[in-house]
Design goal:
The protein has 217 residues and is an all-alpha fold. It contains nine helices and no strands. The radius of gyration is 20 Å and the shape is elongated. It starts with a helix and ends in a 12-residue tail after the last helix. 20% of the residues are buried.
């Protein structure tokens, strides 16, 4: 296997471990063992755990940014457009659950020495969506908190699911103990129920529709 392939294998392994254990709970030795290489190879090919963590976070950010930029540019400036944006955002994170888990660890104080990542990655994405949504919102709506309400809700849903819905523990339960109430799978019915709830939250903060727009809502 060539160096690029080994580096990618290490990066994917580190992504999984960082997402489940956090940066502070992951060592170069753990990454090496899970990737099937020695610790020296991890350091030589990636620069070590801190450089590897930054690479993982940058990759996650770029994937999310690309999704939001494409969605914001193509969707109509309407209630339906915001519904569609919420759907795209939810579907993206359901397909990439490690991204929400990476950020959840950071919200709990993980990798405190890399606090600049919030300024570099989170704020630009919030601004991007805020500018797209602002014209549709009532003047008394705090756009930042409206967006974060959606983000917090989605992150909790993707990472913890819905308690007592019979989901099975995650397959990596042998790596670390799972939080109480953690769920690894979500039924289509549960996802659609949550999607409908997101739409309701959005509708509650839109400007009151005029007679001509009522039908489109």
């Amino acid at each position: 296997m060539d160096e690029d392939s080994v580096r990618e294998q290490i990066t994917q392994t580190a992504t999984r471990l960082f997402a489940e254990l956090g940066f502070d709970g992951t060592t170069a030795g753990m990454i090496a063992a899970a990737a099937g290489v020695d610790t020296a190879t991890v350091v030589d090919l990636t620069g070590g755990t801190t450089a590897l963590y930054h690479s993982v976070m940058e990759r996650a950010h770029m994937a999310e940014r690309s999704m939001l930029e494409e969605a914001s540019a193509s969707l109509p400036l309407s209630a339906q457009g915001l519904h569609d944006l919420a759907d795209i955002y939810l579907d993206f994170h359901l397909s990439h659950p490690h991204i929400a888990r990476l950020w959840l660890h950071r919200w709990l104080g993980d990798a405190a020495a890399s606090a600049d990542l919030e300024l570099s990655y989170e704020r630009p994405l919030t601004n991007l969506v805020a500018e797209a949504a602002r014209p549709l919102l009532a003047p008394d709506i705090d756009v930042d908190y409206m967006l974060w309400t959606l983000v917090w809700s989605m992150t909790g849903f993707v990472t913890y699911g819905v308690p007592d819905h019979g989901d099975q523990p995650a397959p990596w339960r042998d790596i670390a103990p799972l939080p109480q109430g953690y769920r690894s799978t979500l039924t289509p019915e549960t996802i659609e129920r949550f999607r409908s709830h997101l739409h309701t939250l959005i509708d509650r903060v839109l400007r009151a529709p005029g007679p001509s727009s009522t039908a489109s809502m």
